[in-house]
Design a protein that fits this description.
It contains nine helices and ten strands. The protein has 265 residues and is α/β, with parallel strands linked by helices.
Length: 265
């Protein structure tokens, strides 16, 4: 029993040292990317986990600004990576997957009130359907400073498709939006965060410049631009405490050199 207590004591001490190191080590420099979906107060049960209430989202935006974060777009990131512009001291990219109508009616005004930017990843074949953004709304959002990206044509996890279908989902979603009057689509979001080692090259062939995953962590100019990491922000259960913990998660994973995608396989 004495040896068990001794072993537990050693483990507790090691854990304390690890937590102290994690907490006291300076925050890594990098670009924070946050992943949202719905911004609304009421939604059906099937999408409830992905709906951040308006008051919570507003509080999160205000917290980011109070902490010195400045929103940028994926294009800003790539221009800075190529030496064509400077990034702010604490850049953050706000991304919104699927392209729900509340991104226009609710999200856009909240960002504009604060002089902030965002990137919306659209499921192309959902454009104009009930609950999703229309072509006119997408065009207007671009004119008002929102970056539009591709979330494929049909939102099928690409790893479940053959190579021909994968390429079709990447290519057609981009072309359809550009043919309908949207500015060039340069950024991509993997449905369900599912990707494999061949997809970055496929996206490059289709003239995308960046792509976001569901892997947690911060990004630098050394990060593969087709495997950018994001922190998911679901409907909160613990208010701002949960939001701050999720930001800490990005820092912790980066400090530890852990790419979350590896943990899922």
């Amino acid at each position: 029993m004495r040896y068990v207590r001794y072993g537990l004591g050693i483990l507790a001490f090691a854990l304390l040292v690890f937590i102290s190191w994690l907490t006291l080590t300076p925050a890594p420099q990098g670009i924070l990317v946050l992943e949202y979906h719905h911004i609304c107060d009421e939604i059906g049960e099937d999408g409830a986990a992905y709906a951040v209430p308006v008051a919570d989202f507003s509080q999160q935006l205000d917290y980011l600004q109070a902490e010195g974060y400045t929103t940028i777009t994926m294009q800003d990131y790539m221009r800075a990576k190529k030496g064509k512009q400077e990034l702010p001291a604490k850049p953050v990219i706000l991304t919104f997957d699927d392209g729900y109508e509340d991104n226009y009616t609710t999200l856009l005004p909240l960002l504009e009130e604060r002089g902030m930017k965002g990137t919306v990843y659209m499921i192309t074949n959902s454009i104009g359907r009930k609950g999703y953004l229309s072509w006119n709304q997408l065009r207007e959002m671009q004119e008002r400073g929102i970056e539009i990206g591709s979330h494929t044509a049909n939102h099928q996890p690409l790893t479940t498709l053959d190579r021909e279908k994968q390429a079709e989902e990447m290519k057609l979603s981009k072309l359809l939006m550009e043919w309908n009057g949207l500015k060039t689509i340069f950024t991509f979001s993997y449905p369900n965060g599912a990707y494999d080692e061949e997809m970055p090259a496929m996206l490059k062939e289709n003239e995308y410049l960046t792509a976001v995953t569901g892997d947690g962590g911060l990004n630098t100019f050394q990060t593969n631009p087709y495997l950018l990491q994001r922190i998911n922000i679901p409907r909160p259960h613990l208010g701002m405490t949960e939001f701050k913990l999720r930001l800490f998660k990005a820092e912790a994973l980066t400090k530890l050199g852990i790419r979350q995608h590896l943990l899922k396989e």
